[in-house]
Amino acid sequence: MRSKFFANLLLGVLPLLGLGAGCGQYQGGATAYLTWHVVNASDPDPLTAPARDCAAKGVEWVRVQLATGTLFDFPCTAYSGETGSFTAGTYSIDVIALGATGAALSAQRITSEVFGRTNLGHFIFQVR
User: Fold this and answer.
1) How far is CA 68 from CA 17, 18, 53, 55, in A?
2) What is the pTM of this model?
3) What burial class does residue 64 get, using C-beta atoms within 10 Å of its C-beta: 0-12 exposed, 13-18 middle, 19+ buried?
4) Percent of the chain with pLDDT strictly greater than 70
5) pLDDT value at position 52?
6) Which residue in 65, 126, 58 sits closest to 92, CA to CA?
7) Does domain 25-127 bear CATH number 3.40.630.10?
């Protein structure tokens, strides 16, 4: 009888303390990081193709664009980047290799849950 009373008491108090609220979606901030390299589009297998210099292939920037329109640009020659903070959640994300004029030379779209500091992975841009 006593243990049932304490169990009911505990179940009634946990939500008031915020300790039983593990079922909601994380509402904090997030950042995402990634790495990349550029290959010739004519190589038959991008996974084994040799990496090319960004400048030689005309790639100036790498853009990470969230479906919300939020975007982050990185110099291609950095070969890695980390976004600023944004609201955590599940996003459709475009990762785009841009030329000096802003034209998209190669692009990939992923969907990712982003919360805390999230690794988006390594991207291989196939450029003509």
Assistant:
1) 34, 30, 31, 30
2) 0.80
3) buried
4) 80
5) 98
6) 65
7) no
- DSSP per position, 14-49: HHHHTSS--SSPP-SEEEEEEEEEEEETTSS-TTTS
Please state, in angstroms and rounded to a whole number, the distance separating the CA atoms of residues 43 and 48: 9
d(CA 30, CA 119): 11
Identify the pLDDT of residue 7. 46
- As a whole number of Å, the end-to-end CA separation of the chain is 76
With a cut of 60, say whether residue 95 has pLDDT above it.
yes
DSSP H or E run through 11: helix 2-17
The phi-psi region of residue 121 (left if phi > 0; otherwise alpha if psi is between -120 and 50; otherwise beta) is left
At position 47, the amino acid (one-letter code) is L
Nearest alpha carbon to residue 114 among 85, 91, 95, 82? 91
Task: Fill in the DSSP letter of residue 6.
Answer: H
**Predicted pLDDT at 27:** 74
Give the tens place of pLDDT for each residue, 59-94.
Answer: 999 999 999 999 999 999 999 999 999 999 999 999
